[in-house]
Amino acid sequence: MVLTVNKKNIYSKTKLMDLTSWVILPFLLGSVGIYSLFKVLQKLRSSAYIQDAVVVLTGATSGLGKECAKVFYKAGARLVLCGRSEERLNDLINELSQMRKGSTQLHKPHMVIFDLSDVDTVTSAAKEILHLVGNVDILINNAGISYRGTILNTKVSVDRMLMDTNYFGPVALTKALLPSMIKNKRGHIVAISSVQGKISIPFRSAYSASKHATQAFFDCLRAEMAPHDITVTLINPGYIQTNLSLNAVTDDGSKYGVMDKTTAEGRTAEEVAKIVLSAVEERSKEVLVAGLVPTLAVYLRALAPKIFFSLMAARAKKERKMKDT
Ligand SMILES: NC(=O)c1ccc[n+]([C@@H]2O[C@H](COP(=O)([O-])OP(=O)(O)OC[C@H]3O[C@@H](n4cnc5c(N)ncnc54)[C@H](OP(=O)(O)O)[C@@H]3O)[C@@H](O)[C@H]2O)c1
Fold first, then answer.
1. Domain 51-290, CATH among 3.40.50.720, 3.30.565.10, 3.90.1200.10, 3.40.50.2000
2. Which of 82, 87, 139, 142 has most ligand 1 atoms within 8 Å of its beta carbon, as the pocket-test mutant?
3. What average pLDDT does the segment 115-119 reach?
């Protein structure tokens, strides 16, 4: 009796081993192999997208823009670095040239100096860019300025300045470069917006409004450019460790000059720059780069707006109290 049971066990074990060695194992190994091959091909396709591509980057002198310059440069892009300070752009080009030593795949960057808040200057700068490089493959609208203040005390000239820099500047640059992209049948427009392009938080009205406008414009652009195969990527980051709050303006247009705790505790600019690079490589349409609370807030605004409005009112009350004490 015992012998019969053992025989049965041995028989079924052998059958199981046969099944494992002839069916399951080859299937698993095959799947892993196909997946790895797919990943390698995907990586090659992504790298090929950036290698030798002409990438125009605004706000390259500081923070996220500076880190984007480094990651796109390392990936082999032909950079056109834009900013207001020739000295800082030169410093960055010198820094990048240190990485170039011995590499044949990295290209010497160009620089174009202009102020984004003046539409006429932006249009002339776009002509200069096209004259320098012929065609633009990828435009990264990164430059921007932030704001702190109450709506009651803020001069309309400040609201206008924020809109000029964060909205009309990128819009003008995009419009000036689009026709050549369409003609060339290749183009990718990136806009660095913000979580505040999705939700408005108190005492940031001008900034939030400019980023909401950015979101709306580039969403329309994505749809309108689909027949031309031009990709539009919106990046909506939460706080990043940059000089954004230090450079922010207040209700009378003067410099805020404070490194906010939230900004200091944000993601590093290098980390976000790598996310921007991946989003471009993967032709993502939109990326929210935020933690759990801001992500929930974005969904709450859409799904349960009344709760969101109460929370923002409570936040405004708390911040006002803190200012008064
Ligand atoms: N830091 C954050 O927490 C955060 C969060 C979400 C989104 N963002 C967005 O990320 C982008 C980059 O900002 P950042 O955080 O890197 O701040 P940043 O360190 O202050 O850099 C801002 C960049 O924009 C440029 N800029 C400002 N006004 C300009 C103008 N009128 N004309 C041309 N360039 C101008 C600055 O040039 P100058 O050196 O000449 O001043 C600088 O290169 C912005 O669009 C910002 O809204 C930032």
1. 3.40.50.720
2. 142
3. 97
